[in-house]
Design goal:
about 325 residues; alpha+beta; Uridine Diphospho-n-acetylenolpyruvylglucosamine Reductase, domain 2; Uridine Diphospho-n-acetylenolpyruvylglucosamine Reductase, domain 3; Enolase-like, domain 1; 3 domains; 6-stranded antiparallel β-sheet; 12 helices; Mopterin_DH_FAD-bd; Molybdopterin dehydrogenase FAD-binding; FAD; oxidoreductase activity
Amino acid sequence: MASLERDVPAYAAVKVWRPHTAEEAWRLKRQFGAAARYAAGGTWLRTRWESGAAMMPLHLISLEQIADMRGVQQIELASIGEPQSSFLRIGAITSLAQLMESPLVTGVAPLLQEAARSIAAPSIRQLATVGGNVLTRSGDLIPALAALDAQLVLCTGSGANGGRHSGGYERQPLIEWLAASGNDSDSSVVVAVDIAAEPRSKPYWFRKIGRRESFSPSVITAAGTFGIDATGRLDDVRIVVSGTGMPAVRLYDAETAAEQGAYGMALYAAVRAGVPSVSDDFAGSAYRRMAAANMIASELDAAVRSIAAVGEVSADG
């Protein structure tokens, strides 16, 4: 393991470490605690340091040389007492550009590629990583990942064999990880993201409202997936919403309302009630909730209308 000294301002004499395994990175973070940060593309971290929103750490643990954390592959996994299932595993240091170009992602989760296209400029997407976007806890990729029931693969340094823990690694649903309070002293390494590789992707939608037309931080980002049951109603609905400064949340009550046939104002009210009340200098909490409710209710109403149209065509046929 090598360290590298860089010319940095005197107030932040940063030492950069370049481990070759996730376990090695985890041990470094355990050693230095809150004085160290993980980094790969570094686009979000650099913005925070330059704006003064965060202090540069004394130790920077670069993940760029950990080959197992890069790329997209299809794998087979089985839990105790459950049949083997196929998953798409996306390495945490896979760039957003690589995600957009992956034929495996196109075949299984095109929703992720649509979300990635909404993030920053092409030059930034060459550097920014999937894991980095997740670690912001409010990145534009998160609603899409959570709507697909994504699970994080974490290197935790310890774990019991079997279940979702094995040999120092843990698989945790993204939505559960988001609900836990993150802090700089957490040593866990986000190694990869797993998504069920279903033979046929469910219908989906993705919407983002920014502060301007393009290359803009999100005021509200939302994503959803849904199925259609035997009676022609929405089923297995997932709705996730986030925004800059607003950690992503899943709108369980709105999902239930949609599955029970709510539409129009009833669905609008269910969505609005679930959106967190968060404001900043660019958007008040009332505007965020109204915008999210309008956007999501519109998408779900469109889904209901499309189902009804298909039913009418089938009846005529």
